[in-house]
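A quick aside before the break. I want you to see a complete sequence-to-structure record at least once, exactly as it would be stored in a machine-readable document. Don't worry about memorizing anything.
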Amino acid sequence: MKKKVIKYVEKAVAAVAAARGFADVELSEIGIELPREKAFGDFSSNIAMQLAGRWKDNPRKIGAALKDELDKETDLAEVTIAGPGFINMRLTFPCWHQRLQEIIESGADFAQLDYGQGRRVLVEFVSANPTGPLHIGHGRGAAVGDVLARLLTWAGFSVDREYYVNDAGNQMMVLGRSLRWRYLELQGQRQGEIPEGYYQGGYLLDLAKELLADQGAELTAANVDEEDDAGLEFFTKFAADAILAGIRDDLDLFGVGFEHWTSEKKFFTSGLVDDALADLKKKEVLYEEEGATWFASSRFGDEKDRVVVRANGVKTYFASDIAYHREKYERGYDLLIDVWGADHHGYVPRLKAAIEALGHEPESFAAILVQLVSLSRGGTPVAMSTRAGQFITLEEVVREVGKDAARYFFLTRRSDSQLDFDLELAKSKNNDNPVYYAQYAHARICSIFRRAEEEGVKPNCDRASFAASLTLPEELDLIKKLDNFTALLESAARTLELHRITYYLDELAAQLHSYYNRNKVITEDLQVSGDRLLLVGAIRQVIKICLTLLGVSAPEKM
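That is the input. The structure line, written in tokens, reads:
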């Protein structure tokens, strides 16, 4: 409806401009907003103030001239001038009823967008080191990445999901040593506490038991000699493969899948890191200093230059990240989005610098930073220490509260703000639980339709009287809320702000529950009953789209 009103305003501006002898007015954007108060109407415009300086006239006078033109539009029930020249507009009931009809006829495809225009996007998320199971912090990143991919697909992008397996570097050797120590401990060859700096979690003891059951005690001396790293690869590979398989299972349980799993190790073994550095050297943005090789990232807005090859010849993680993102572009993606932990905020400028140095627009890369999750149970904090290997895994949370509640809770706040996840609240079956509140709205409408069927009442599909009885203020507010859904999704896709979906769904569910508590849907008046079924059916349709985008089920009974 906003687009419809913009066209009316554009038409009025053109008419007033012509009457004043001005050429066609070119405005990049007509300012149309929702008024702060309902009494002002459905839409408000500051166009008169925009034109005042250009036309050198009082904005209220311009507004009055525009009002005269807008009064000619039959879809506008009322046009008023407020304050310094704001134009407030109210649409007719039939206009809103027609919009409801369009929403219903769109069905499950309502609010699908062409905003992305088929551009290819790669969303890389989770990408946890295969050194331990996923914890709830990873779960939040998984929910954000998966829902972002769903939203961008809905908005008209061609989207792939990718998990970058960090299977190179020192942390993998530490993993191998940790498993070897636990393996020897089971055979009585190691006693006491596992050495500091090794991975502490009990999951390694479980892996050691699996290894012992699989291999017995017959591994070669080279494999188990802690002074010899030659045989360490066996333990490292066994642990990494088992942990990664567990990660895949946990993500599957959480309803998250990936089109691609990419190994960091391949970038070193295949020479892709060397190729990327050679490319940067050719572009004259690498230099040698104190035996190390530096990338001149400060030339591209970073606060300082960054080492890509240390003085000992070892390439840094940043070097492999440059190669990785270079390879993403080579695969033909137009936009790269990485979902990272909030502690990576300082990494964004240097990667953008590398992307620009490689010849790509910095705006073609975006990083979503995900803040920490604090866990509580009924308001009491749950202590966690990843250093000591004591943490709540994603699997534990999903199995306790369910996939739907876990996903929804992770998305109830901005990704860059801290989140308190209360396990007891997530399991509760009352309106304090936001996912229950939203799902119950869908189930309630399904119940209404079951009762309507039992009583032989059907939605009023007669075009001549379609929704004619829907004139209550709360009914119009609900139609307006549904109308705003398209703009909401486009804004969320443009800003990459997923919490807008849960906020919208919370508000829509609240409006629905409030309306239902004050008004019967099935009444003795068949016209009213049929029209109200149209309205709640459209609400159910939009609630289901929201829940689907969030990866949450839409139950018909609760």
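Two observations worth writing down. The domain at 97-114+430-549 is CATH 1.10.730.10 (Isoleucyl-tRNA Synthetase; Domain 1). The mean pLDDT is 93. We'll return to this after the break.
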